[in-house]
Give the backbone structure.
Amino acid sequence: MDLGELEIEILAIFKEIKSGTAADVLGRLRERRETAYSTVITTLERLHRKGFLARRSEKWRGGARHVFSVSGNVDQQREIVHRALDRLLDAFGPVAVSAIHERIDNTSSERVEELKRAVTSRRKR
């Protein structure tokens, strides 16, 4: 199961906001690109069907709306990353490895420490 560019961008938004509606996501997306509300709804529903987002309904303005949040399926997330890395390595070999190392080297020390804590926490589970 692959993810498209917009799906990845929306998942990154949920990493920041934790949970939100289509309108919340649209507001964040419009800071970066012009996107239609219907496109956001469709993409959120697709991510929900794929298991990346959980969805709940809540009463709102005399009706209901959906609030989405990251599902927390780490195995599924890991599988997507593995496939993406495999494709990069197959296509670019040593250049991909070099680029990954460069990216890590250029990551702030605070971010590196945050990632180390996350990895350590996952290993303890």
